[in-house]
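Weekly structure sync, notes
Attendees: PL (lead), two postdocs, one rotation student
Agenda item 3: pending single-chain targets
PL asked that the sequence for the first pending target be pasted directly into the notes so everyone works from the same version. It is reproduced below exactly as submitted, 106 residues in total.
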Amino acid sequence: ATSKYIRVAPNKLDVIISKIRGKTYKEALDILKKLSQKNSAIIWRTLYSAASNAANNYQLEKDKLFVLEAYVNQGSILKRMQPRARGKSYRIEKKISHVTIIVAEN
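Predicted structure, written out during the meeting:
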């Protein structure tokens, strides 16, 4: 399953993704529920969607699933300007992420 155009920097999501990579589906859900970062909800939603897709489209059992691949790609960057002293301006880059999670059966 893929979640695209998430308004969170990829390096923040990659820390969370690395904790669930290679785990079983139920372990990964438990890890994501217990994490204090608010961005873990985004990953949880994508993982749940991947498991539901596997169960619906490929008739796999959710209990036997594990996280085969999980990665974050950087999307486009929103470029903004911050006014500074003496008429200058600094550039602010608001990064966008794409999350992909692939599950498989044992």
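Discussion points:
- Strands lie at 2-6, 65-83, 89-105.
- The first strand starts at residue 2 and ends at 6.
Action: rotation student to compare against the earlier draft before next sync.
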